[in-house]
Design brief:
The chain is 75% helix and 0% strand. It has 13 helices and no strands.
Length: 389
C-alpha cells in the first residue's frame, strides 16, 4: 500500500487489518461480559439461555470474524487476484459489528438485528470467497466453499429454532464448533507444517528433515474426525460416538507429532500454532470419554477445543499474519510470547474449572490479558502502513 494512501484506505486494504483488530477487541469484551453475567453483575437478554448466547457469539461471532480476516486475506494469495478491500470490506465489517451489538440488545428489535446481520455476514462472506476462487478457477481451494456455506446453514438453523428449544440450539452450537474445527483442519493442516518447514530451512540448517505433505493418513484422520463430529452433533451420548472421539484423538495427536513442532520450539510464532492444534486431540479425547459415561469431562472437552484450540490458534495466526503482510520480520515480540504463555496457562486452568470457580475466574482474566496484550502490540501495526524492506 503506497505511503500516500489515507489511514482509512490502509486500514481497509486487507481483511486481516480490520477483522483482527475487531476480533481481539471482541475477545476481551465478550468474555468479560460473560464473566459479569456469571457473577450476577450484568443481565443478558433473556430471550434464550445465556450460555447459548455466549456459545454462539464465541463460535459465529468471534471465530467467524477471525475466519473472515484470514480467508479474505489468504484468498488473494491463493488466486493472485486483488484483495477484497475498500467498500466491500467496510460493508462486511459493519454487518459483523451490527450482529455483535444486536446480540446484546434485550428487545425483539435487538434479536432482529442480531439474526439478520448474522445471516447477512455469512451470505456476504461466502459470496466474496466464492467470487474470488471461482473467478480464478482456483480448484484446489474450492473446498472452502462448502465450509462457508455450512456456517450459513448452521446460522439459519440456529435463528429459526425456538428460544425455548435448548436442545436444538445446542445442536446448532455443536455444529458451529465442529465447523470451526474443520476450518482449522483445512487451514492449520496446511500452514502449520509449511511454516515449520520454511523456518527449519532458514534457521536449522543442521537438520535435514522433510515434513510430510497432506497424504492418506491425514485424509483418514480428518474423515474419522468428521465422523466423530457428525455423531457428536446428533448422538452426543452414544458409546459409538465416544469410541470415534478417542480414535480421532489418537490420530490427530499422531498427525501433530509428524509435524515435529519441537524442532522449532525456540520460535514462539511457531510453537503457539503447534500448541493450539495440540488442544484438538485433548478435546476429542475428553469429549469421547464424556460420551462413554464420564460426563464430568464434557465441559473440559468443549473448552479444550474453544478456549484452547480456537483461542490459541486465532491469537497465533493473527500475530503471524499481521507481521508477514505488513513487511515485518516473522519473529515474536517478547510481549506476545508472554501472551502465548498466558493463553496456554488459561486453557489448562479452564480445563480444571470443575474444581472451583476461582480457576474459571483466573482463566477468564488470562484470556482477556492475552488479547489485551495483542491489542497493545498490534493495533499500531494493523492501523499503520506496510513497512519498507
Amino acid at each position: 500500500m503506497a505511503a500516500s494512501c489515507s489511514p482509512t484506505q490502509v486500514f481497509f486494504s486487507y481483511a486481516f487489518r480490520p477483522f483482527f483488530l475487531l476480533v481481539s477487541v471482541y475477545a476481551v469484551l465478550a468474555i468479560g461480559g460473560w464473566a459479569l453475567n456469571q457473577w450476577g453483575l450484568w443481565s443478558w437478554p433473556d430471550s434464550m439461555p445465556a450460555y447459548i448466547r455466549h456459545g454462539h457469539e464465541m463460535l459465529f461471532g468471534y471465530a467467524g470474524g477471525a475466519i473472515a480476516g484470514f480467508l479474505l486475506t489468504a484468498v488473494a494469495t491463493w488466486t493472485s487476484r486483488p484483495a477484497v478491500s475498500a467498500e466491500p470490506l467496510l460493508g462486511l465489517c459493519i454487518v459483523w459489528i451490527t450482529a455483535r451489538i444486536g446480540a446484546f440488545i434485550p428487545t425483539p428489535t435487538g434479536f432482529a438485528f442480531w439474526s439478520v446481520a448474522s445471516l447477512l455476514f455469512w451470505v456476504a462472506l461466502a459470496g466474496l470467497i466464492a467470487r474470488e476462487v471461482l473467478a480464478a478457477r482456483n480448484i484446489r481451494n474450492y473446498k472452502v466453499l462448502p465450509l462457508s456455506a455450512a456456517f450459513l446453514g448452521a446460522e439459519i438453523a440456529f435463528f429459526s429454532a425456538a428460544s425455548e428449544d435448548p436442545e436444538r440450539l445446542e445442536m446448532c452450537l455443536r455444529t458451529g464448533l465442529f465447523l470451526v474445527i474443520g476450518m482449522i483442519f483445512l487451514v492449520g493442516g496446511r500452514i502449520i507444517p509449511a511454516f515449520t518447514q520454511n523456518w527449519l530451512r532458514l534457521n536449522r540448517t543442521e537438520i535435514n528433515v522433510q515434513l510430510p505433505a497432506f497424504g492418506l493418513f491425514d485424509l483418514a484422520s480428518v474423515l474419522i474426525a468428521t465422523a466423530f463430529a457428525v455423531a457428536f452433533i446428533v448422538w452426543p451420548t452414544s458409546i459409538w460416538t465416544g469410541t470415534l472421539g478417542l480414535l480421532a484423538a489418537l490420530l490427530h495427536a499422531w498427525r501433530l507429532l509428524r509435524w515435529r513442532g519441537w524442532l522449532a520450539g525456540r520460535e514462539p510464532l511457531l510453537w503457539v500454532l503447534h500448541m493450539g492444534y495440540g488442544w484438538i486431540p485433548v478435546g476429542f479425547g475428553l469429549l469421547g470419554l464424556s460420551c462413554l459415561g464420564w460426563q464430568s469431562f464434557f465441559d473440559a472437552g468443549i473448552h479444550a477445543l474453544t478456549y484452547g484450540a480456537m483461542g490459541t490458534l486465532i491469537l497465533g495466526v493473527a500475530a503471524r499474519v499481521a507481521l508477514g503482510h505488513t513487511g515485518r520480520a516473522l519473529q515474536a515480540y517478547p510481549a506476545m510470547t508472554f501472551a502465548f504463555g498466558l493463553i496456554t496457562l488459561g486453557t489448562l486452568l479452564r480445563l480444571f474449572g470443575a474444581l472451583g470457580q476461582g480457576l474459571i475466574t483466573l482463566s477468564v482474566l488470562l484470556w482477556m490479558a492475552s488479547y489485551l496484550i495483542f491489542l497493545v502490540q498490534y493495533a499500531p501495526i494493523l492501523l499503520g502502513p506496510r513497512v519498507s524492506t
